[in-house]
């Protein structure tokens, strides 16, 4: 270190000190109650309700704005049943379109992405129609959506299935008249450990250096040009050890508990007013 | 930072000129302070923030607690008196003459979120919070002309004599500020404010000093003008700052984002105004013609269609839009006051069955075209389909002959 | 915000973190994001070993949340958790410290909420760097003290004593009391109107 010698701790005038938080020396404050103690809370809340999380950009986190938009989101959820679905689930969306003859449009596909928070939340469905890959981006809170159904509730190995664009078309082909498969209540959500085969290069992205677990052996398929460039690419497998980088963008337990309490309160009020019996806060993996 | 904001906001609504001071006595109009943005506080105004260390002043803990209590009580007392004085003032909802200019609000941008119309169109809205707005002071045009260089330009402008109305937003801890700054609030009998903004107001629309301003000063469907500082990007290169193209990616060394040539050989100098890298953003900008689509009265929040200058958390000035077709024709004059509330209540109808009771909802005002999240999904009928008066494609395209 | 998270969310840590990770440079390593973690890893190891360390101020600020988060992982998840074990393994370079963490430091905070650490600022120090042609080169350092709570050392900051006996304080308190009564009277008179 830069210090020449160890020095005994001398008494220094207190004006030189600045401490962001008051030091806590003994057991003064109680730890927050564990999740078993708080009834009715869902452990997998961030996965089921990614739209209720806070923005990963700290500048955009504002309690008042979140409260106002949460109110709108809950009102919408009282009018339409938004089921639980994950990236990798097969979902059918019926939306109304004024320029269609039937005024209704139903699209079935695999959910490949769920992004953004609050009223901005979006999800993308992918299917192959007449050998052409089609991706439809829906706003979750768009009032023209009439119905959302989960035909098959499952997860895949990745949180973004963008690689299906470069995969063989059979991996993103789903029958429009598919029968919904019921998920037995109280059982954990199954993870489909399917590894997709990619088409031959060129690809839209360099999948051979991505960390996607759901792709089968990209290295043999990659072209020699990119194989030669591997040493130049940034392989950042050490990033997972950066505890605070993770903390900057993820949600906190306090927020999850607070939002769930708000949702429960909202449900209770609406049930007491005799408007609906619909429940918003629910999880397929829990018995309740 | 705050001081620079306050001092520049106080120069008035046409704030593109903020930071430019004219020397009135000499005939010269010379620019004294920064051209685009001023990051240092003006030297001639008294400081706003007090730098007293919180510790080691020699106060005991009991006295500190007592001081906190007194401050709390004082803020409460000031708020109640300001509220009562604003209830006593006379306000009407009526026609607004074209010549009159009303006061505006000092708001904070808290985020952006989408809303949908009854047609199913998505509108991206900016959410603006009206945080405890009070009128701090009112200066007559004569006084303003005499006392300040800005007043020389603005007090008697082409729209006639203008009063300067200072509005404060956001209550704050008074111990953070200097006595000179706090005195103006004590004079108006209101709590110490965090942010200040100034508006040019005509005599027929003058509010009273100390009056509370409400989000309902603006109505739903009204068009407004928003003025504020743009996002501060810091030092940026020519590509980001001016949208220059840069240079090729391949067969180029260390010049991919450089601006290239900056002038000719003849006169060996750079022309003034040459676009170059430098500080980008944090400039006063005004956007006009923004429509208010929704107002939350309980939380004092305004939803504006479109985007306003500045980052989230920045302070903005909201005024009536002056474009002829978007001008406010009738509204509360000089401003909204609690005495107008009773008129609104009577107009409301009895709640129907199956509709969410009002007690569970915020008190909100919606634009009639806006979709309400309490209503069911939008269902279209044949009447909604787009009527295309298309040409009969079986026949040839013939120009119409004018008779 | 991925749908497949490594582990369940943790509570907030009671420490302010900057929104941009700061660059930390050190001799022998080329500055990069990897190097930054390497610098932090050494500091965290040293902090757990010594429980109170003197650091350059910017490094202390940057390292504090990492120490905080690591202790929190131990408190919330315990030694048997896979993720916690992996993080402890990586962050604590000397392996006996993993045992110390789980058996000495974490039990201290079983019933405590964050923060588990304190950061104090020492007066800046000028230290001689080198002498070049009889010219002495000095450099100024901002120094911070990072400590884990419950350490065996004497406190860094002495407890502030009550100074209520000063005449100024008594007069001020009296004036404040009078002002408070005046305000109350004004409020009451307004209410009765």
Automatic annotation (TrEMBL), chain A:
It comes from Caenorhabditis brenneri (Nematode worm). The keyword RNA-binding does not apply. It is found in: Mitochondrion. SUPFAM superfamilies: Translation proteins SH3-like domain. Belongs to the bacterial ribosomal protein bL19 family. This is Large ribosomal subunit protein bL19m. GO terms for molecular function: structural constituent of ribosome. Keywords: Mitochondrion, Ribonucleoprotein, Ribosomal protein, Transit peptide.
From TrEMBL, chain B:
Pfam families: Ribosomal_L3. GO terms for molecular function: structural constituent of ribosome. The keyword Ribonucleoprotein applies. InterPro entries: Ribosomal_uL3, Ribosomal_uL3_bac/org-type, Transl_B-barrel_sf. It comes from the Eukaryota. The keyword Transcription regulation does not apply. Keywords: Ribonucleoprotein, Ribosomal protein. GO terms for biological process: translation. GO terms for cellular component: mitochondrial large ribosomal subunit. SUPFAM superfamilies: Translation proteins (SSF50447). Belongs to the universal ribosomal protein uL3 family. This is Large ribosomal subunit protein uL3m. It comes from Caenorhabditis brenneri.
UniProtKB/TrEMBL annotation, chain C:
GO terms for molecular function: structural constituent of ribosome. InterPro entries: Ribosomal_bL17 (IPR000456), Ribosomal_bL17_sf (IPR036373). Transmembrane segments: none annotated. This is Large ribosomal subunit protein bL17m. It comes from Caenorhabditis brenneri. Belongs to the bacterial ribosomal protein bL17 family. One of its GO terms (cellular component) is mitochondrial large ribosomal subunit. It comes from the Eukaryota. Keywords: Ribonucleoprotein, Ribosomal protein. One of its GO terms (biological process) is translation.
């Amino acid at each position: 270190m830069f210090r020449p010698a160890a020095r005994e701790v001398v008494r220094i005038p207190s004006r030189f000190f600045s401490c962001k938080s008051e030091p806590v020396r003994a057991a003064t404050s109680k730890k927050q109650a564990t999740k078993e103690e708080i009834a009715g809370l869902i452990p997998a809340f961030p996965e089921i309700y990614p739209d209720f999380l806070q923005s990963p950009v700290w500048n955009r986190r504002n309690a008042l704005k979140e409260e106002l938009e949460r109110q709108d989101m809950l009102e919408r959820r009282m009018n339409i049943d938004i089921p639980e679905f994950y990236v990798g689930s097969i979902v059918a969306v019926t939306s109304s379109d004024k320029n269609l003859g039937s005024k209704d449009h139903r699209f079935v596909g695999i959910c490949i992405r769920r992004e953004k928070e609050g009223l901005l939340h979006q999800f993308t469905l992918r299917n192959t129609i007449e050998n052409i890959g089609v991706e439809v981006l829906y706003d979750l809170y768009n009032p023209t959506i009439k119905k959302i159904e989960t035909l098959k509730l499952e997860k895949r190995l990745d949180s973004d299935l963008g690689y299906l664009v470069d995969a063989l078309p059979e991996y993103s082909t789903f029958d429009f008249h598919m029968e919904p498969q019921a998920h037995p209540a109280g059982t954990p959500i199954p993870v489909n450990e399917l590894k997709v085969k990619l088409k031959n290069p060129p690809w839209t992205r360099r999948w051979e250096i991505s960390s996607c677990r759901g792709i089968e052996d990209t290295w043999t398929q990659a072209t020699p040009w990119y194989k030669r460039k591997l040493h130049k690419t940034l392989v950042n497998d050490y990033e997972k050890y950066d505890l605070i980088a993770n903390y900057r963008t993820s949600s906190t337990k306090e927020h999850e508990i607070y939002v769930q309490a708000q949702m429960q309160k909202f449900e209770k009020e609406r049930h007491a007013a005799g408007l609906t019996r619909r429940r918003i806060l629910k999880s397929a993996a829990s018995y309740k | 930072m705050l001081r620079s904001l306050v001092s520049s906001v106080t120069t008035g609504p046409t704030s593109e000129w903020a930071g430019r001071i004219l020397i009135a006595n000499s005939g010269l109009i010379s620019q004294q302070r920064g051209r685009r943005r001023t990051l240092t506080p003006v030297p001639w105004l008294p400081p706003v923030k007090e730098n007293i260390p919180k510790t080691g002043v020699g106060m005991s803990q009991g006295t500190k607690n007592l001081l906190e209590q007194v401050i709390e009580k004082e803020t409460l007392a000031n708020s109640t008196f300001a509220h009562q004085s604003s209830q006593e003032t006379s306000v009407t909802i009526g026609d607004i003459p074209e010549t009159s200019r009303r006061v505006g609000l000092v708001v904070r941008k808290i985020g952006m979120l989408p809303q949908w119309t009854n047609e199913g169109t998505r509108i991206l809205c900016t959410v603006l919070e009206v945080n405890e707005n009070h009128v701090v002071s009112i200066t007559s045009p004569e006084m303003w002309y005499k006392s300040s260089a800005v007043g020389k330009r603005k007090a008697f402008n082409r729209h006639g004599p203008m009063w300067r109305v200072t509005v404060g937003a956001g209550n704050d801890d008074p111990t953070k500020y200097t006595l000179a700054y706090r005195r103006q609030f004590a004079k108006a009998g209101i709590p110490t404010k965090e942010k200040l903004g100034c508006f040019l107001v005509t005599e027929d629309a003058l509010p009273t000093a100390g009056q509370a301003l409400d989000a309902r000063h603006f109505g739903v469907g009204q068009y407004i003008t928003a003025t504020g500082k743009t996002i501060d990007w810091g030092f940026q290169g020519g590509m980001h700052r001016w949208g220059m193209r840069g240079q090729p990616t391949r067969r180029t060394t260390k010049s991919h984002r450089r601006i290239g040539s900056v002038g000719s050989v003849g006169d060996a100098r750079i022309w003034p105004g040459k676009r170059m890298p430098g500080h980008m953003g944090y400039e006063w900008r005004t956007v006009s013609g923004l429509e208010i689509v929704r107002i939350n009265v309980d939380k004092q929040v305004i939803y504006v269609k479109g985007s306003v200058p500045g980052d989230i958390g920045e302070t903005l000035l909201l005024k009536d839009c002056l474009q002829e077709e978007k001008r406010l024709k009738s509204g509360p004059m000089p401003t909204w006051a609690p005495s107008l509330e009773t008129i609104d209540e009577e107009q409301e109808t009895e709640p129907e069955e199956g509709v969410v009771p009002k007690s569970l909802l915020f008190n909100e005002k919606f634009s009639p075209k806006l979709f309400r999240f309490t209503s069911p999904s939008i269902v279209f009928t044949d009447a909604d389909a787009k009527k295309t008066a298309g040409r009969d494609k079986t026949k040839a395209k013939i120009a119409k002959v004018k008779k | 915000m991925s749908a497949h998270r490594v582990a369940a969310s943790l509570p907030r840590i009671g420490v302010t973190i900057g929104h941009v990770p700061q660059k930390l440079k050190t001799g022998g390593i080329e500055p990069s994001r990897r190097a930054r973690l390497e610098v932090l890893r050494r500091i965290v190891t040293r902090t757990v070993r010594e429980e109170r360390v003197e650091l350059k101020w910017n490094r202390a600020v940057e390292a504090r949340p990492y120490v905080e988060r690591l202790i929190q992982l131990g408190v919330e998840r315990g030694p048997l958790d896979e993720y916690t074990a992996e993080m402890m393994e990586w962050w604590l370079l000397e392996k006996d410290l993993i045992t110390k963490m789980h058996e000495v430091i974490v039990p201290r905070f079983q019933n405590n909420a964050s923060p588990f650490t304190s950061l104090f600022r020492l007066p800046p120090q000028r230290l001689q760097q080198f002498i070049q042609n009889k010219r002495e080169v000095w450099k100024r350092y901002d120094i911070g003290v990072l400590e884990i709570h419950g350490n065996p050392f004497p406190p860094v900051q002495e407890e502030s004593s009550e100074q209520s006996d000063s005449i100024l304080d008594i007069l001020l308190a009296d004036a404040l009391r009078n002002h408070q009564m005046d305000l109350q009277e004004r409020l009451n008179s307004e209410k009765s109107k």
